[in-house]
Write a structure and sequence with these properties.
The complex is a heterodimer of chains A (590) and B (95).
Chain A lengths: L8 H32 L1 H12 E6 L6 E2 L5 E13 L7 H12 L3 H8 L6 E7 L1 H8 L6 E10 L7 H4 L11 H5 L1 H5 L3 E6 L12 E4 L6 E4 L3 H18 L3 E8 L5 E7 L29 H4 L9 H11 L7 E5 L2 E3 L15 E3 L7 E4 H6 L3 H11 L1 H10 L17 E2 L8 H6 L4 E2 L2 H12 L3 E3 L4 E6 L2 E4 L5 E3 L3 H17 L13 E10 L5 E13 L6 E8 L8 H19 L10
Parallel strand pairs in A: 2-8
Antiparallel strand pairs in A: 1-6, 2-3, 3-4, 3-5, 6-7, 8-18, 9-10, 9-23, 11-14, 12-13, 15-16, 17-20, 18-19, 21-22, 22-23
Helix pairs in contact in A: 3-4, 9-18, 11-13, 11-14, 11-17
Chain B lengths: L1 H49 L2 H10 L7 E6 L8 E6 L6
Antiparallel strand pairs in B: 1-2
Classes of the chains: A alpha+beta (590), B alpha+beta (95).
Chain lengths: 590, 95
């Protein structure tokens, strides 16, 4: 009996159908995935891919340059190389510390300690010039590398250090103009974003987005570098000659308030600051070393007789005296508090003596000023009254900051505490007030500028990518009339021609000025023999262009007075300044 | 049609090659500018260092030079009587 075979096509068809279905499903899944990737996730995935190739680097702005008034460079930034080591890769740290440390002048022991410490990055020395770095890299020492780094350079070295100040190792302003103008000098960082290949090189046709850095502004200062150098040399010589602790000089144009020189001694190198006096580096209470703490702007001292200019100018302006007015019977000692005068070594506050003893006699105001009589000046101030005297002291800018573009300027001090019966008399002759050399220079400049006081300043223009802009904030104010200023200039000339300031004379020019010799206060609050000797003066007296203020701190022996210590420095600096600026002679002084 | 396609393809390839070459040249020029700028800065700094009065003055002194102590100024007389040379001398160096 024959049996029929089951149909064979059914399972085959089913399998074919199943395979077809599987293929369709697979294609469907792939199509779905394709659409998902290419359509829905495409932007995110493209971004992710790009981010793996993209790098973003900050672009450091070039720090602005600082120039003197003639375009001489005072500060600029150049590219340097900083050497570093990866301690894990260094095979012989002791050899490296001794050999390389020795070649670069680095403390070998300290370098060895850092190389063997638990760290993976050690600077060997930062900011080397290219040649020096290349010399080390040519030794092909394993684990030693370099990277480029900007370094601040001061081509004028110590000459302009008191003006420019300096930056720290990371290029941030720490002192002087570098600190005052730090935000402007720094500029604005940029950013570069670009695609890179596996080896790190940029893909030339790839994506790139560059926001360029905005360089810092350049500063054009009012400083005259050769004059700054000559003033500094005169100060250095004065310190040597007189045995003084410090000397400071300010040279200023009377009409514009431009500071042509601002310097002192001792000096310092703005880069190699390890040459500073170690006693004041990191001194008590974080005291700043006196060598780079610019006393001419930040310091304050009792000016002594240079203050008499303000007292006499006020009296003339108020009409209480004329220069020919005779003050009767001017003695060499004046006692404003009973029994204050005991002896020259043991006087109490309220006793005033002239520097040199003399017989009591009638003296004109001009003679009082020329001979620098303390007693005579107090007699003049008496007729003026305390309130008016204080008003004029403030008008001349004492007791408040001048507004100079320099950090931490001193406002000085007017010490008129309530109940102080004799402070007005002390102030009339330069005690009970404290001023900075710059304040005094500005006050004398006002007399040279027909009674108009001008804000002293160090920067004349800033130059950015858009061009040059004048520095704002220069104030002027009339403190006395032009007539009074003219009379005071004649009195100042008299001091040099026949008074206490004869050694301030300058050949070919009529100069005028005033000596100042003020005893310093001791630790017990009593005056001691040490002095601050000063001289402030103008030239040419017929049409003043320049004021020079000199302060010599603690000159020794016969140099204790302003006439002996400061006036010769004034003469030297003023002569150089007049010659350098081509100012015509107006007389035959000297 | 096929010819146009081939020419367009070759043209595109040539343009792309030219663009890449130009980009390489540009990168090379950028590097050269950076290098020359750095050299320029170094030279500017070197000039400023050499012009530092603190360097020049001692050298000048060694050579026997002194700061001029005699100033001659020509004062022009406006009334027509001729120039006057004012000799304002303190010629210590020649004494």
């Amino acid at each position: 009996m024959a049996t029929a075979n089951p149909p064979r096509t059914h399972p085959t068809k089913v399998r074919i159908a199943l395979i077809g279905l599987a293929i369709v499903v697979a294609w469907g899944v792939m199509a779905y995935r394709l659409v998902q990737i290419q359509v829905f996730h495409a932007p995110a995935l493209a971004e992710e891919g790009l981010s793996q190739r993209l790098v973003s680097r900050p672009l450091a702005p070039q720090r602005g340059k600082i120039f003197d008034r003639n375009g001489e460079l005072l500060a600029m930034t150049v590219e340097s190389q900083s050497l570093f080591a990866v301690p894990d890769q260094v095979e012989e740290p002791l050899w490296l510390a001794q050999q390389v440390g020795g070649l670069l002048g680095v403390d070998s022991d300290a370098l060895y300690r850092r190389l063997t410490s638990d760290t993976n990055f050690v600077y060997i020395k930062r900011q080397l010039d290219g040649v020096e770095a290349e010399r080390i890299l040519d030794m092909e020492i394993r684990g030693v590398y370099s990277h480029p780094e900007p370094a601040r350079i001061y081509p004028a070295g110590q000459v302009a250090a008191h003006v420019t100040g300096f930056v720290n190792i990371d290029g941030v302003g720490q002192e002087g103009l570098e600190l005052v103008y730090d935000p402007a000098l720094t500029g604005v960082p940029g950013r570069a974003e670009f695609e890179r290949a596996l080896d790190g090189t940029p893909i030339l046709q790839g994506h790139s987005d560059i926001t360029p850095a905005v360089p810092g502004v350049d500063l054009n200062t009012t400083i005259d570098l050769p004059l700054q150098y000559q003033a500094q040399e005169a100060c250095v010589d004065a310190v040597e000659r007189t045995g003084a602790a410090n000397c400071w000089v300010v040279v200023m144009a009377v009409e514009t308030g431009e500071i042509l020189a601002l310097t002192g001694a001792p000096v310092f190198d703005p880069v190699q600051r390890q040459t500073l006096d170690p006693q004041c580096e990191g001194g008590p209470d974080g005291a700043v070393c006196r060598q780079f703490s610019n006393f001419a702007v930040r310091g304050s001292y009792e000016p002594g007789s240079t203050q008499k200019l303000i007292t006499v100018a006020a009296a003339l302006e108020e009409g209480v005296v004329e220069i020919g007015t005779t003050i009767p019977w001017v003695s060499d000692v004046l006692e404003l508090r009973p029994e204050a005068c005991r002896s020259t070594d043991d006087d109490l506050f309220g006793c005033y003596r002239d520097f040199k003893p003399h017989e009591a006699r009638d003296m004109t105001v001009a003679e009082i000023f020329t001979r620098s009589s303390n007693v005579g000046t107090i007699r003049v101030a008496e007729s003026l009254g305390q309130d008016t005297l204080v008003d004029y002291i403030e008008r001349f800018g004492l007791g408040s900051k001048t507004g100079v573009d320099y950090t931490a300027e001193s406002a000085g001090l007017l010490n008129f505490e309530a109940g102080c019966e004799t402070c007005w008399a002390s102030a009339a002759i330069g005690y009970s007030v404290a001023v900075s050399p710059l304040q005094m220079a500005a006050a004398y400049a006002a007399i040279g500028n027909d009674g108009t006081w001008v804000t002293p300043h160090l920067v004349s223009t800033q130059v950015d990518v858009d061009g040059q802009t004048e520095v704002a904030g220069i104030e002027t104010r009339q403190v006395v009339s032009a007539g009074t200023a003219l009379l005071m200039r004649e009195l100042l000339a008299g001091v040099v021609e026949r008074g206490t300031g004869e050694s301030a004379a300058v050949e070919g020019y009529r100069v005028g000025g005033k000596t100042g010799t003020a005893n310093k206060l001791g630790e017990d609050g009593r005056y001691i023999d040490d002095t601050r000797a000063s001289f402030v003066g103008l030239a040419p007296i017929s049409d003043p262009k320049l004021v020079v203020a000199v302060v010599v701190d603690t000159p020794q022996f016969e140099f204790r007075t302003g006439g002996a210590a400061a006036a010769p420095v004034f003469s030297e600096v003023m002569e150089q300044a007049l010659h350098r600026l081509g100012i015509s002679p107006d007389g035959s002084g000297g | 049609m096929a010819l146009i396609a081939v020419v367009a393809f070759l043209g595109l390839g040539f343009a792309r090659t030219s663009l890449d070459r130009a980009a390489f040249e540009l990168a090379e020029l950028d590097r050269a500018i950076t290098e020359q700028t750095a050299i320029n800065r170094q030279l500017t700094m070197e000039i400023a260092r050499l012009e530092n009065p603190a360097r020049i003055a001692p050298l000048a002194e060694e050579l026997g030079l002194v700061i001029p102590s005699q100033i001659n100024q020509i004062l022009v007389d406006l009334d027509g009587s001729g120039p006057v040379v004012a000799d304002l001398a303190r010629d210590e160096a020649n004494q």
